[in-house]
Amino acid sequence: MNNNTFHSRRDVLCRSFNGIGAMALSGLMANEANADAQTPLSPKQPHLPRKAKHCIFLFMQGGVSQMDSFEYKPILNELHGKPIPDVPHITGELQGRLSFPHACVGSEFSFKRYGESGRYVSELFPNLAKHVDDLAFIHGIKTDNQNHGPSTLHVTTGSQFPGSPSVGSWVNYGLGSENQNMPGYVVIQDPRGAPVNGAAVWANGYLPAAYQGTLLRAQGTPILNLDRPEGITAQQQRTEFDALRWLNQEHLATRPQASELEARIGSYELAFRMQTTAPELVDIANEPEHVREMYGLNDGATSGFGRQCLLARRFVEAGVRYTLLIHGVQISRDSWDDHGDVAGGMRKHSREVDKPIAGLLADLKQRGLLDETLVVWASEMGRTPFRNGGLGKNPGREHNSHALTMWMAGGNVAGGATAGETDEFSLQSIGDPIPIRDVHATILDLMGLDDDQLRYLHAGRQRQLTDIGGYVLDEIIV
Predict the structure, then answer these.
(1) Which of 83, 135, 231, 339 sits in a 20 to 30 Å window from 12, CA-based?
(2) Closest CA to 378 of 415, 351, 409, 345
(3) 3-class DSSP state of 92
């Protein structure tokens, strides 16, 4: 054939597709040869020698009442129906609420001491109370806003304003993931609906898009459109993905700063690998009956969050770095925002989570996984010991950004330890408050990350989770 031979359009297309097929084959060979190639989620060395390799963050949407759960304040029952006495150094919105007519609201629930640590726990958490010697509590945590939206962002991203990376994104940025067949950061929200701010709670913010959380559905296929189309084999799909990857890489080459495009390329590859891994991980049908009972899967009240907790354990076993579990929907009866009937609300909410969380802790411990898993309980704020406008029929509690209570377990957490303390009314901390940035610095430390070293250049300055730096709460670390 000489150089002047005419090629039809059909010949050109045929030759082109043969080329694409060869390209796909070379891509497959390259994938096998470069299995250890670095990706944004490749495992990285921690800064500090810490036990925890995984984190499960339990977020209770709405503002948990600390004096009905983990803070025993008997004076509130003595003052029930009366105004709170003058308290020094009260400022801001909390001072404003106290200046209006109000009535103290005592707790309807009894408290008992548990464990060698002698921790007071409300009767609402009988199962979790059995684990108090594994828990370290932090009292008097302060966020910078009394409203649900900003405060939820403050706790989950370090900033009360949208656009900052979530805690899980920072952890994945710092450590990568041990399982390249699953997202490094998995989110399972309440099966009844989304939290305040929606996806902003688990967003990557200004970090590269590869570090955002991946939301798994409550039922059915874990991610929409993850299943392979009917009639398409794995080999056929692999060939298509390799062709698509080549085209996208060509496009990316002229746009080196487009992290969203880079993440999209990676997402195709991850989706291909997840088609085998993810369905098996989320299929809990074969879990033995005693495990199902442990998590409360056989009870309608606990089955929703029980499934979330059981999946979190399975993700830890699979090497997923960070799992965010959300209980509570927006600001509704299914959230912890109990402005009215706090007693009824707390009975409902605690009933839904107490057994599943206790089951998660027990299951991790018996499998030898608690030592390498940091478990964090949080909400966006605490509540007030009073209700504005008088008791009414079924009194509730107002917002209080000065008295959030959190606890941690696992890894290098000093079980039975305490950081911070609130006054006798559970209004605010005694002494210096604990800002949420100190809690974030502590979470990073327990994951082996130094907050001062974990930085990202954005908008001309080095950014970090705590923004201006936080102090590690050494009293809860062993």
Answers:
(1) 231
(2) 409
(3) helix
Per-residue pLDDT reduced to its tens digit, 373-382: 999 999 999 9
Largest CA-CA distance found in the chain, in angstroms, rounded:
103
Contact 48, 449 (CB under 8 A): yes
Reported as a single tens digit per residue, the pLDDT across 140-172 is 999 999 999 999 999 999 999 999 999 999 999
User: Which domains does the chain possess?
Assistant: 43-235+275-476 (3.40.720)
Ramachandran quadrant class, 86 (left: phi over 0; alpha: psi -120 to 50; beta: rest): beta
For residues 65 and 76, is the Cβ–Cβ distance under 8 A?
A: no
What residues contact residue 349 under an 8 Å CB cut-off, 6+ apart?
A: 60, 62, 64, 327, 328, 336
Name the pTM for this structure. 0.86
Gap between the Cα atoms of 400 and 408, Å rounded: 21
Q: What is the pLDDT of residue 374?
A: 99
- Looking at this protein, which amino acid is placed at residue 319? G
Q: Cα separations (Å) of 79 from 83, 101, 157, 236, 444? A: 7, 15, 37, 72, 40
Q: Provide the residue type at 225 as one letter.
A: N
Give one DSSP letter per residue of 33-86, joined into a string: HTTT---TTS----SS--S--EEEEEEETT---GGGTT---THHHHTTTSPPPP
The two tokens of residue 355 are 């057994």
In the chain, count H helices and then E strands: 11, 17
3 state SS of 419? strand
N residues, the chain: 478
Contact by Cβ (8 Å): 386, 84: yes
Residue written as token pair 């050494």 = 474
